[in-house]
């Protein structure tokens, strides 16, 4: 059968659009918080890259979607966000929902992970805690690296007496010395730090989370990879993750990985 020239031209003109429908981006550059173990932290063997539970989960997601990703260090958190806003990097991997960023970023729902922030006290503490309001009037501490939900940040600023410290280590030290009555910290990071510092027998985490911020994937409006196909596929994957066990397994694996790294003498190569 003879193919009319116009039909051939029409077929060729459709090819680019069909390719775009399947996703126009084969490689994504992703960044995130460089100091949020066991979720994300800088690879001691290659500090230009980020490793952790979030990195592992995203590598699996990318493999399922037939994409290549690089988890790169973009500077401290504020600098990395600037890299994503500008489009120099495509996705920020672990950001709480911020309404003020909607003009720069598309948030993928649901969240990649929910972070449980717990109230940690000494085991002999008489502090009564069932709700956040119970902490009013008591001195507490928190790491400056903590990322709470916007609602809890407002509540804490108005109702709680919190000393903000550079990391969890001085916060827990002040708790043991009795200089503060409680520390607010993430379940996994605090567990690893307490074990590493030899404080596990002296500290206890209260069961009821004080805050549970969702950490989202956020795609830059300026990213060349930001298209409906990618957003739709990532939304599908985020919806499937909670029931898959993938995230929980990655968290446990990277909790042990980070603890092993913390326990190594300075200058000892990691395996």
TrEMBL record:
Stored Gene3D superfamilies: Periplasmic binding protein-like II
Signal peptide: 1-21
Keyword list, A-Z: Signal
Domain Solute-binding protein family 3/N-terminal positions: 27-257
InterPro entries xrefs: Solute-binding_3/MltF_N (IPR001638)
Entry-linked SMART domains: PBPb (SM00062)
Top-level taxon in the UniProt lineage: Bacteria
Pfam families, per database record: SBP_bac_3
PANTHER family in the cross-refs: AMINO ACID ABC TRANSPORTER SUBSTRATE-BINDING PAAT FAMILY PROTEIN, MEMBRANE-BOUND LYTIC MUREIN TRANSGLYCOSYLASE F
Family from the record: Belongs to the bacterial solute-binding protein 3 family.
The protein's name in its UniProt record: Substrate-binding periplasmic protein
